[in-house]
Amino acid sequence: MLSLVPTPIGNISDISLRSLDVLSTADIILCEDTRVTKKLIHLLKERHNLTTTEPQFLSLHSHNEAEFIAKLTPEFFNANVVYVSDAGMPGISDPGQMLVRYCLNQGIAYDILPGANAALTAFVASGFVETKMLFFGFLPHKGNDRASALQEALFNGYTTILYESPKRLDKLLSELSVAVPQRQIFLAKELTKRYQRFFRGVASELIPQMEKEIRGEWVVVIEASETKGSSLSEQDILSLDIPKKVASKLIAKITGENPKECYTRLLQS
């Protein structure tokens, strides 16, 4: 059968007893990075007395997932197969879902163990009382795809959770300071690790605080908008047969961007 096993997102003590039991009997461990998983197994042996059957480690990550699964046969799961991501819950911004779908299609038994997840941990830590939330993972890095995804993330009517790299956190906060200057933002850095930090405030307040804090893994929780905004995106407007000056005014209306700056950006695109 297949078991998806969550791993600690920082603190090794967050491993569950069930996870240790499943790992101890694994014949094959599929992992994002075999080096990371072997190091984890070594630490678990030292600190939690994990005993294993000397499993085979195979690499399964976002770049080879489709090809790997295309070559699978049901007989592969006659062994005890475990999939773990580098950290956290498999299938949440990490591979795993395609394996589950394969098992469903082939009638193969599978189990999903609960465990550490950065998005849910940050959501609870944010103190936003709305119980409805949407998880967007990582936004596209640039262009119209990013503008459209950010628009959807900000004006869906729910508390929104994003993952962001330290390389782009400053860019995201700058975008938020323009698009939703009064919206409360919660930032969680290095969850469960030694340098875990929480920050909360409007984006313009958070930007100067990031000068010495930018390194690390970040979860961004954005307060829900009072009303659900338009689903109209910048790309929708640009597809219309209208002058760029008119388009810039419409885009500025739904994003909060300065109309003149928007017009200049459209002329340069």
Helix fraction bin: 25-40%
| Rg estimate, integer Å | 22 Å
Helix and strand sequence: EHEHEHEHEHEHEHEEHEHHH
Please state the average pLDDT score: 91
Give the helix/strand class.
alpha/beta
Molecular structure report:
The mean pLDDT is 91. This protein has 269 residues and is α/β, with parallel strands linked by helices. It is built from 11 helices and 10 strands. The strands form 2 sheets. A 5-stranded parallel sheet has the order 3-2-4-1-5, with helices on both faces. A 5-stranded mixed sheet has the order 6-7-10-8-9, with helices on both faces. The N and C termini lie far apart (51 Å). The protein is globular and about 65 Å long.
Question: How is this fold's topology laid out?
Answer:
Layout (H helix, E strand, L loop, with lengths): L1 E3 L12 H8 L3 E4 L2 H15 L7 E4 L5 H6 L10 E4 L12 H10 L3 E3 L5 H9 L6 E6 L4 H12 L4 E6 L4 H11 L4 E6 L7 E6 H4 L11 E5 L11 H5 L5 H12 L3 H10 L1
Parallel strand pairs: 1-4, 1-5, 2-3, 2-4, 6-7
Antiparallel strand pairs: 7-10, 8-9, 8-10
TL;DR of this structure?
By secondary structure, the chain is an alpha/beta fold. It is built from eleven helices and ten strands. Helices cover 38% and strands 17% of the residues.
What labels would you give this structure?
single chain; 269 residues; alpha/beta; five-stranded parallel β-sheet; five-stranded mixed β-sheet; 10 strands; 17% strand
